[in-house]
Design a protein that fits this description.
Elements: H1 2-14, H2 17-27, H3 45-55, H4 57-63, E1 66-70, H5 77-92, E2 97-101, H6 105-110, H7 121-127, E3 130-134, H8 144-158, E4 162-167, H9 171-177, H10 179-188, E5 189-193, H11 199-208
Parallel strand pairs: 1-4, 1-5, 2-3, 3-4
Helix pairs in contact: 8-10, 9-10
The structure holds adenosine-5'-diphosphate (ADP) and magnesium ion (MG).
Adenosine-5'-diphosphate (ADP) binds near residues 32, 77, 166, 199 and 200.
Length: about 210
């Protein structure tokens, strides 16, 4: 799996930092995640699955296979989604991906927020080869936002487009309480539990040492 990391590092070196930042900006990935790196993922079993996914990301995208990164708050889910999107950019840049926060979806749809002259954010979200939907939160009675996210995921899975989703819900909660969504997800995303490290707590301890 070292090869995956080497391959990514080589690609990073090939693209001038400034150019890569322009690509990252275009994906709408929050700046906070631009620095997310494989090295910082702790050596827990899920890391191997992440590396496998990264190593075959081109094929995954052709087949429309995404990830459902689930687990507790601050475990590094969004960072892993960012690493996947960055890797896809490096391999097939430039028009590969988009990042949206699940809770921004209603605003994008209602206000027809533009991505650029040709696309709205929503039309881009429906058609881009790799989409990250960050922080899907579900409530018992699916509200507006959740339905929109569900519709978007369904449409993308139908079109065989890869979607990476992050959520604090456990897989069993999704399975038991949102069976329709669970069914859809099974067709196009690999569930992966991200647990065992609390990044924000670690940051806090570090700052206390100062
Ligand atoms: N692989 C990583 N590389 C760099 N920083 C990371 C990584 N994983 C987590 N972090 C840091 O920890 C913070 C919390 O991780 P995040 O991915 O946002 O957690 P989650 O999405 O599970 O709540 C991030 O803002 C980032 O600063
Ligand atoms: Mg997150």
């Amino acid at each position: 799996m070292i090869q995956v990391e080497d391959m990514i590092k080589k690609r990073v070196d090939m693209i001038p930092q400034k150019d890569f930042e322009i690509l990252l900006k275009r994906t709408h990935m929050p700046k906070l995640h631009w620095e997310a790196s494989i090295d910082k993922i702790p050596d827990l079993p899920y890391k191997l699955t992440v590396l496998k996914y990264l190593g075959s990301i081109k094929e995954r995208m052709v087949e429309g296979q995404g990830l459902l990164l689930h687990g507790p708050y601050s475990s590094g889910k969004s960072a892993i989604a960012a690493i996947c999107l960055k890797t896809a950019l490096l391999l097939q840049f430039p028009k590969i991906g988009l990042w949206i926060k699940a809770k921004a979806l209603p605003d994008y749809i209602i206000n027809k927020t533009r991505f650029d002259d040709a696309f709205t954010m929503y039309s881009r979200a429906k058609s881009v080869p790799l989409l990250v939907i960050d922080e899907i939160q579900l409530r018992k009675n699916l509200g507006y936002t959740e339905n929109m996210a569900e519709d978007l995921i369904r449409e993308r899975i139908d079109k065989q487009l890869a979607t990476i989703i992050t959520t604090n819900h456990s897989l069993s909660t999704i399975r038991d309480e949102y069976p329709a969504l669970y069914e859809i997800l099974q067709e196009g995303v690999l569930p992966l539990k991200i647990e065992g490290c609390n990044f924000r707590q670690e940051k806090r301890i570090n700052s206390e040492e100062w």
